[in-house]
Design brief:
mainly alpha, 1 helix
Length: 98
């Protein structure tokens, strides 16, 4: 009589243990899948960040070149203005003398 009860209990225990292994296996598979996915995303994000960084550096270089060119043109114009002002002053002095 005790033997069928023991067999029943062992069967139930085996079923519970097997179910626990299946559940644990499922979660381990999900964790592995998530880690692989996150690793791939990290690689993509690093590439994107590097690309944005290069673009920013390129933009900064362009801005520096444009600023230097604008300063050069502005200084030439200031030089021309200074020359014209000197001529004007010279003409005014000559008119007062004459």
């Amino acid at each position: 009589m005790e033997e069928p009860i023991v067999m029943f209990i062992l069967t139930i225990a085996g079923f519970v243990i097997a179910t626990c292994f299946v559940i644990i296996g499922f979660f381990i598979a999900r964790i592995v899948s998530d880690v692989k996915s996150n690793t791939a995303n990290i690689g993509k994000n690093k590439g994107t960040i590097e690309l944005v960084k290069q673009q920013q550096e390129s933009d900064i270089e362009k801005i520096e070149k444009m600023t230097q060119l604008e300063i050069k043109v502005l200084s030439e114009k200031v030089g021309d203005l200074s020359t014209n002002v000197n001529r004007l002053v010279d003409l005014m002095v000559e008119q007062k003398k004459g």
